[in-house]
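Justification of computing resources. Each target in the renewal requires a structure prediction run like the one illustrated here; the chain below, 133 residues long, is used simply to show the kind of job we budget for.
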Amino acid sequence: TKHLIKNVLWTTAKNFTVERGRQQIEELISTWDIHESWLHHSEFLEEEELKDSKRYHYRACWGIPTRRRPIPQATANVYFVIVISKFKPDTTPVEVFYRLESSRLIRRPEQCQFREKWLKDIIENKIACTERL
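Resulting structure tokens:
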């Protein structure tokens, strides 16, 4: 079945601020179909100046705390980049990309539906790895 990909109306380059970027990432995350037991926090990491753009890096750290384990055994990170072109008009919306900590594949929110399974896989792999050690 084809899922409807929900997206966010991204702010324009001229209206962008670091905090507005974080708020919009939260808005995007709220469209993802993820069970309520997952908790996350998001944070701004750094600003990167390139020849053709400015890139703003963010991270959302996910886990499932429980009554028995209020601090999760493992967490999964999703990294976001908001790109502001230096060549496009400042009325153009920012571009947004994300990737999972275990992957080099870069995804665009409007082209790919986020899957809760990706978070589960990262955490299961981390737990299996620590158990082997």
